[in-house]
Amino acid sequence: MSGKIKRGKVVSYNKWGYIFLIPFVLVYIIFQLVPLVTTIYNSFFENYRQGLMQVGPNFIGFDNYKTILTNGDMWVYAQNTFIMWILGFVPQIIVSLLLGAWFSDTRMRLKGTRFFKTVIYLPNLIMASAFSMLFFTLFSDGGPVNSILMQTGILDSPYSFLSHAGSARGLVAFMNFIMWFGNTTILLMAGMMGIDTALFEAAEVDGATSAQVFFRITLPLLKPILIYVMITSLIGGLQMFDVPQILTNGTGDPMRSSMTLIMYLNKHLFSKNYGLAGALSVFLFIITAALSMLVYRFSNRKEA
Amino acid sequence: MKKKIMSTILAAATLVTMLTGCGGQTADGGKVSISDGGKVLNIACWNEEFKSRVEDHYPGYQIVDATTGKIGDVTVKWNITPNENNAYQNKLDENLLNQASAAVDDKIDIFLIEADYALKYVDTEYAVPVSSLGITDADLANQYQYTKDVVTDSNGNIKGVSWQGCPGVLIYRRDIAKEILGSDDPDVVQGYLSDWNKFSETAAKMQEAGYYMMSSVNDSYRVYSNNVTSKWVVDGKINIDANLMAWVESSKAMVDAGQTNTYDLWSNDWSAGFFEEGKVFCYFGPAWFIDFSMSAGTEGAIATNGGWGAAAGPQGFFWGGTWICAANGTDNSSLVKDIILQMTTNEAVMTDIVVADNDFVNNKPAMEALASGEQKIKDESGKEVEYFSKVLGGQNPLPMFCAGAEKVDLSNQGAYDQGCNEEFQKAMKNYFDGNATLEEALELFYKAVEEKYPGLTH
Fold this sequence. Notes:
The complex is a heterodimer of chains A (304) and B (458). Chain A has 304 residues and is mainly α. Chain A folds into two domains: 2-59, no CATH class; 65-303, Orthogonal Bundle (MetI-like fold), CATH 1.10.3720.10. Chain A has helices at residues 2-42, 63-71, 73-104, 113-121, 128-138, 144-151, 165-193, 197-205, 210-221, 223-238, 242-247, 261-267, 274-303; strands spanning 45-50, 53-59. In chain A, 33% of the residues are buried. Chain B folds into two domains: 33-166 and 321-348, 3-Layer(aba) Sandwich (D-Maltodextrin-Binding Protein, domain 2); 168-318 and 412-452, 3-Layer(aba) Sandwich (D-Maltodextrin-Binding Protein, domain 2), CATH 3.40.190. Helices cover 40% and strands 14% of the residues of chain B. Chain B has helices spanning 2-18, 49-57, 87-97, 118-122, 145-149, 174-181, 186-193, 196-208, 221-225, 242-256, 268-271, 287-293, 333-345, 347-357, 364-372, 398-407, 417-432, 438-452; strands at residues 40-45, 61-65, 68-71, 74-80, 108-114, 161-162, 168-173, 212-214, 233-234, 237-238, 280-286, 308-311, 322-326, 377-378, 384-385. Chain B is of the alpha+beta class and 458 residues long.
């Protein structure tokens, strides 16, 4: 008898847990689960608008998937996205590690770290589109960068940065680097400050050089944070859109070499092509999930 | 971590699917339903131009605030959506597709369209023939034929009326003309530019002297695309007219020779030629381009000192123009009719617009009287003089415009023109810049058009 009463009490406490979860679950279902399911649902239909004429929705099975797989565009744009992400991510992680190590190094006692932490974070506060407009103007044929290069005699005639695949991709990567390295530095620094200072002191007593301390102590202990940074950046990179979209005026020129997957997705919105766009989204979902799983598995195994 | 990943992906998916709910069905049924007695007149447009014309010239219009006005006891609502990224058409599409179910006061009564996409709306039931409003052919007799052709649907009904004509001319720099061609007189200069062969000979001369013939290859695009002999889409297949390939060929040659560049229209690099430091010999443009776009009034701009001249150029073309359409389902049909008649056919209003706004209006007698000097205008000191353009150094370009407006031929326009023209120029830029072969650039063009219009093939 008494046992039953006790159990009842436990249940009534549990009830509050569920009640507190309701807002999250509701928001999640309405704004995330339902759209996800409808995206998949839509991907099986021919459904677009040509001018003012609505075509479909007609059920066509896996035809949209076939179209995307056979025309091969998706892989090209996935490759573009990946190249631009890597170009931005490598310098970003190197610079962030370096800055993070310096800022958190107790022996160096750098002055004004707080000021610099704010400054390197600032580019992230500018809207990506405004930042792209700025770069578009800076690197146009008649823009300041070309003027400086010509006045200093490095160039004879203006270099069209956005008409060459390398420089266009480079600019996109550079902007992503500038925008995100501050954020990464702060994350890594938080990780580094969490490392027990006794370890550094012990290393110092043993006569380890700064390089040895960094590679033997800081890096291994920083791994969980590094993996977090890597995964978030990878997903952010897959969703790269605003910077190249504005910089190239939506064309992804030259020859769509700077067109990312999401820019391609956006192309289907002109004709409200929910079928093809839905199928493409499903592929994106699978790619993202696969990449994330890979990184996650890989990191877990090593930790164990 | 997993949840974080999931939620990020899901959020991305959300963006895509949230838009799904907004799709609508095409209203079927082909009948005109217009009525009278509505209390709100909704006008859909993309900038302030038509609004300011109505405010300044429509008799009895009262301004209430920035987006509302009053005509008698009818409230006029201006629904202005900018053109950028197709926003205006997207909004208008949604409004028109939901026109039947919209509340009485929310129904669109008037919407404005441009030539590039006119047929997209004209060839549907969403725009009503102006004859059903009671506007007769006699009312429109003084208008230029091409302004009627633009808005004539496949059954021969006229579905919109414009107050503007936008024939274009070649606008050249007088100082460069004097230096290289020996004279800045429009007739002499025209002699060097009267066909495309002479045009490219002159371009070579300009290049030798360190000048660019045009700012961008896109400057001459309209001149070629207005003179095509076939449509963009034939039987559901994309068709590239021979004249457009002629543009590609001549543009590639000019870019390779360093006679011009590949800038986008309206970019800073492109408009640098409006200024003294720019080295650009000519642009192509209509009346509104000369008056509003060439930075007149800005220090250092050639237009400020009247340094431009106008010549007819190698071929006639037109650029821009706004047409007024009455929306199916309007509940203010007689007011719509009166606005159209007052703003596009009333000769006194038309002359007012020319004098006050320097627009080229869609009224042959009014324009010809100004062109010939029969109708005088007042200059700054109040003296009656022949019409002249300050930007063009006192030249009267109207005879050229009048002749051009008669010549414009639009028999080959179609509903896909805007999308095809945009994508064609974008794709060919890669070829001109040397980033692709002609075949690759054409392939890219087909791909981009088929993304925009999934029903088309090539």
